[in-house]
Amino acid sequence: MQIDFHHGVTYVAARLAGFEHENANIIAYSTQYVDDATNDGLIRFENGALFSRISSAHKMLDYRNFEELANYRVWIPFHFLPGNGGLPAGEDPQGSFINKLICRPNSYVAQEMVRECIEHRHTPYGLHRLGITMHVYVDTWAHQGFAGVNHRVNEAKNLLDEHGKPDRKLIDRLQNYFISEALPLGHGSVLTNPDKPFLRWGYFNGRGEQITRNNPQDFLAAADNMCKAMQRYLIGDPDAVVPGLPEPDKTLIALMLENITDDKGNVRHQKWLNAIAEGKFSFGKADINYIPKGKDSWKFFALGTEKAVDGGNEKYPYHPSFLTSNWKKFHDALESHHFYITHDLLPKYGICVA
To answer: What InterPro entries does this protein map onto (predicted)?
Structure first.
């Protein structure tokens, strides 16, 4: 998914779940920042203090650049959560290990990840972790059928449009990128098709199976389940029976997912922000924006830097407010999420990854 969903739709779902503006803003920013947290390593302060952080994305979020993106520490825990064949812990899908790694929508793995987030909501970075968890959770719908590793299972051939006919436009783009001969990582071989809310499309995967995708339907299901997860978070009960998206908001979200068809995610994102500002949803008017790097970003308020890329030798002035900054809390949550996914959750399903 792209910024229109990870930021715009997440904010809407959070408000409809019952969060007030300020907390919904933190959740939505955190959800999108998973795609923009591209720097890792030590932060050094002038007084000698240190802070270590990991990244959840790459400097070039470009599915064509496989060598740059072949980093399982990023793709598996943050973008392509293994689905264990849609089976519960203790059961294995037929076939080889790759079948455990393929992402599945709303899998038992994904639901258990959400449960863990809810049960640890009282940490100082609880809302930030909720945002990160929601990013990974909704991506299980968008990235279903793909795995966050270099494997032929991710191949997509004979690409189809919504009518089941060859998608000549996309096929031509792929040929221009010389992508068909590269080892496919994630859904690189279909570029951003899985991440665009309005598309209906299809392809033949690396096993020769014809796959039909209905993004508007999948994205609406993701939004509804995300709203339910956040309602359970507010209640503090991962098993609570909750309503999800209310009507007529759900109808409006469905219409926007289908009818906002701009190719660029930032253009679609602005249309969601406009709808929020105009009070189109039942929670009323709200003004939100998203600044990932530079002046007025979370990183700017935490470190005072406007740089998008860290050089590695910087020393920042230290302020006590750093410890309670949204940027630090996000990175604390990122570390917590990564550790839980790789050391606790996936091993429970017989999955060992870096």
So the answer is: DUF6765
